[in-house]
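Progress note, project year one: complex with 2-acetamido-2-deoxy-beta-D-glucopyranose.
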Amino acid sequence: MQFTINRRLLRNNCLFFLSVFFILEFIHLSFFKRHDSFSKEIKLPSINILSNNKYQKASPNTKLFQHLQPFYYPISCQNLYESDSDELKHALALLADIKNPSSIADQSYNITKEQCQNYRSERFNEQFHHEDTPINRKFPLAFSILMYENVEQFERLLRILYRPQNVYCVHVDKDATSHVLQAVRSIAQCFDNVILASKQEKVLYATFSRLQADINCMEDLIKYPSWKYLLNAANSELPLKTNSELVKILTIYRGYNDIEGRWKSRNVHRTEYSWQVIDTASGNQEQVPQIRKTDEKKKPPPGNVEIVKGSAYGAFSRAFIEFVHTSSIAKELLDWSRDTYSPDEHYWATLNYNTHLHPPGGYKAKSDPTNWTARFVNWGERNCYGRIIRGICVFGTVDLPTLFNRHELFANKFHINADPIAYQCLEELLVNKSKLDLPLNDATFYRQMPFLLPT
Ligand SMILES: *[C@@H]1O[C@H](CO)[C@@H](O)[C@H](O)[C@H]1NC(C)=O
Ligand SMILES: *[C@@H]1O[C@H](CO)[C@@H](O)[C@H](O)[C@H]1NC(C)=O
Ligand SMILES: *[C@@H]1O[C@H](CO)[C@@H](O)[C@H](O)[C@H]1NC(C)=O
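Model obtained:
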């Protein structure tokens, strides 16, 4: 009762102030056009009231951020997941027709702080976030996202992953264009829990910089006290599980790390010799830095560790990341790895599998577990229906039924320009699934993961 009266009073007051504002603005426009510094001070707050009000009263189709709505292809994703051949033909015909996929220019993400509320309500499903379950709220996750280009894809990824209780760190490559950096900054400023990495690296394929970029984000994320697990990702990835599903799976993992590791299959050249980054002249006179093996043999790694080959991506428990951040062996190994080939693919595994280091959530036996769930990557061991880039499949529309059935947390890789329909359909599936908080139908699969040894 009290509240209604106050609201009405407030509205009347607003109407009154608005009328006054219009009169003042009229006077201002007519007579004081040149007094800019003065007018700015009184104008700004008035404009805020006006624009908020305008937004609330506007019809649903007059959106401030209409230009940031992605183009969605007229296709039934549901039929594609069900391998309907007519729908697939339809999708492939659409894709064949796309010469320049309609994408949103990086410069379009020029959101001002004052527009953040509108931006969030138009582009992020706030209503739905506020209805998230207490279980999910009590199990915050941290994400690091490495990116170089394509802000539209970043925004769409963030939109899928975003929940108010989680924390997100974005590492924008030091070599990214200023448009990309500006755009990501203007998105991040709209969220308390989305930060940019405080240190930027120029990430070069297979070099230490790739690992350092992740570590920069992890060091920023560790300052947020609530999260339980950290998942690192690239802008070219999509989750296969909703936030609720991630929480359920990581609850089953009870602090164990989901880090791929293989004792036997490491390539000794990667770590037994010192590697250097050198500029090589490419065809068009440009100096392209590349990593090259030298003849210099490296000293054995510190702490009597054995190098274990794994993946750059994982699901890391908070205690493990604290260990990486504080233990001296983790620091020494990191230093030792600077001149190795692709240290991102052995650093996490080496720390996780060398039992004598007692890493929190680490693997307790000196043998390879045989399966992990952090990533689904198709290295060409099965048919790739998209495009193969650097030996990795960039998933396409025909891969959708396979993706639907995978248990992994994320899939690597996707590109909205390579196959916008695959991207759109995985997005749609995740949005649909996240509105239903169903039980995990494959919980047994996760409970049987070999890295969950009895304690
Ligand atoms: C998602 O939900 C919408 C609305 O209910 C439905 O039309 C669509 O087919 C669903 N898509 C998938 C992939 O389940
Ligand atoms: C912001 O982006 C929109 C859409 O691209 C453009 O029309 C507008 O002029 C831009 N504003 C600024 C301040 O750059
Ligand atoms: C996990 O590894 C075990 C042991 O090799 C194997 O029997 C099982 O089939 C694997 N599960 C999956 C789903 O690959």
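The mean pLDDT is 87.
Residues 29 and 428 are 48 Å apart (CA to CA).
No further modelling is planned for this target in the current period.
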